Structures are given as C-alpha cells and as structure tokens.
Amino acid sequence: MPPAGLAVDVGSVRLRNPVMTAAGTAGHGAELGAYVDLASLGAVVVKSLSPMPWPGNPAPRVRPVAGGMLNSVGLQGPGVARWLAEDLPALEATGATVVASIWGRTVEEYARAGEMLAAAPACVVAVEVNVSCPNTEDGDHMFAHSPSATAAVLAASASCERPLWAKLSPNTPELVAVAGAALDAGAEALTLVNTLTGLAIDLRTRRPALGAGRGGLSGPALHPVAVRAVYECRSAYPSCAIVGVGGVSGALDAVELIMAGASAIQVGTATLADPRAPARVLADLVHWCELNGVTDIAGLTGCAQRTDAEGGRGDRTCPEGPR
C-alpha cells in the first residue's frame, strides 16, 4: 500500500498515518525513542501538562485488574515551562509530530497552559485539552461532566493558538451533549475516551488498593466503551473529527474504532506492557489493509454508520445533530 494511503486528517491537522501514542503512557519526551521510530507515528501525544509542576497522587498508583489496569498517577508532571525547555527538544530532534496535552484545576489554569504553549515550535501541531479533571471552582466536579464547563475550558485553551482536541470522559450519560459543547466552543476534534473510574480493594489491608482511593480503568476492558462513545458521537456530529482511544493493542482494535467513526487512534495502556506497541499496531494495520484491499485508510472512517444503500449496517443509536 502506498504511503499516501495511510494519511489522515484530524480537523485541520494532516497526519502521516492514524496511529498515535496516548497521553500519559508515552512519557513527556522521547522516552519511547529507544523502542520506536517516533517520526514514523502519526503523532506522539505527551503526558498532560499543567501550567505549574504537579506532584501527582500518593503511592501506590497502579493496580493490575482483570481486563486492564487502574491508575491514580494523578497527572504528575513538570509543568509547561520545564517541558518546553527540558523535554520537548529531545522529542523534536527525533522528527516526531507532537500533540501537547494540557489540564488544569480552573479555567484560568487552562488558559495559562495554553498561553505558555503558544511559543512552542512548529512540531507541536495541536493541543489535546484533557477536561477529565476535577474542577476546583465547582466543588471538584469533573469539567467533562458539564457541557458549560467543558465549553469554558475549550474557549480558554484557544490561547495556545493551535488546533484543539477535546479529550472527554466516558463517566457521564451526557457525553454527546458535552461533545457538542466542546465542538461549539472551538474544538476541531474529540478524543474519545479517557479512563473509566474504578476501585480495587486490597484484601490484605481491607482498604482501597490505590493511594488516592479511586483510579482510572484502562486497557482491553475499556475498548467496547470507547467504540460506543466514538459511534454515538459520530452519529450525532457526522462531520466532526474523532480520535479513538481505549484498549487498542492490535490492528483489529484500531480498525474497529475507525469503522465506528474515528479518523485516527491512540495506543495507550498496551505501551506500558510493550513499549514497541505503537509501532507494532501500525505495522499490523498496514498488513491488515494489504490483506483486505484497503488503499485509503481514511475511507474506512465511520463506515459502520452508513446506510444499507451505502454498504453499511444502517442502524443509528443517536439522532443526527447539527454538524
């Protein structure tokens, strides 16, 4: 398959292929460079950054569970300024396409993080706005559980002067409404989804196993949830760009998300077990396309949404929205 057959558009951003890393699983810089040619990926999405250094949650932070893992790392990071000075140069030197990820506890913190990224080099092609964080201005309710709070964050994050991707939480029945608010506030794409909230008990201590109590469930168990979220948002907003993430460990997982409506996908938890996972998924995806006669991967996006006359299943779980 010619290289052009792998190119995809995520909003206004053209990527060489649809396979990216997922925020929080590939480090802040070129950590995976010893295992993967980072320039060969669609993009490297770095761990979420706040405007200031952040220590994260108390240990223990990770817990294996059936079907994946729970984590409560708590968005530990160096802050945007140190990332620009200390981590990004090595990543830029690899030739990678970079997507920065930001978070904050207040709308103002998102605005500050965006402003600090405005001076980033051209290798940073987009900013993924992680709204799955506690909103301390609203009693620690998650931004992504509120259409209005999500819209406020996206509007504030425009200070980065780059395309915005809204990373949304599956922990709300209002996901489609929140997605619409993000798009109306300026998001070029939706990243679906972040982790599900879970809890594990240490049977020895009879207490929560993670230092912060609850954690985020990721891995294979999250995959059907991500497929559902992508499918529903594609149904509601047929023309929006979507990045699918959740339980991608092989080409078939990637293809399923693309058929549900994703333009591109991210590999996350699989990378923690095998740092070569993003490259392997990409190679397997190329092989799958060759076996199935697919010469343009973008042509698969949303094919599960098409009517029977167009060659698809024809069933929709959500009414079409205004996009």
Short note summarizing the structure:
The chain has eight helices and 18 strands. The protein has 323 residues and is α/β, with parallel strands linked by helices.
Please explain how this structure is put together:
With 323 residues, the protein is α/β, with parallel strands linked by helices. The protein has a single domain, classed as Aldolase class I (TIM Barrel, Alpha-Beta Barrel), CATH 3.20.20.70. 28% of the residues lie in helices and 20% in strands. It has an eight-stranded parallel sheet with strand order 3-18-17-12-11-8-7-4. The longest helix has 15 residues. The chain is globular. The relative contact order is 0.16.
Overall mean pLDDT: 93
Helix content range of the residues, please?
25-40%
Number of strands: 18
Gap between N and C termini:
32 Å
- Order of strands across the biggest sheet? 3-18-17-12-11-8-7-4
- Estimate what percentage of residues fall within beta strands: 15-25%
Shape: globular
Q: How does CATH name the architecture? A: Alpha-Beta Barrel
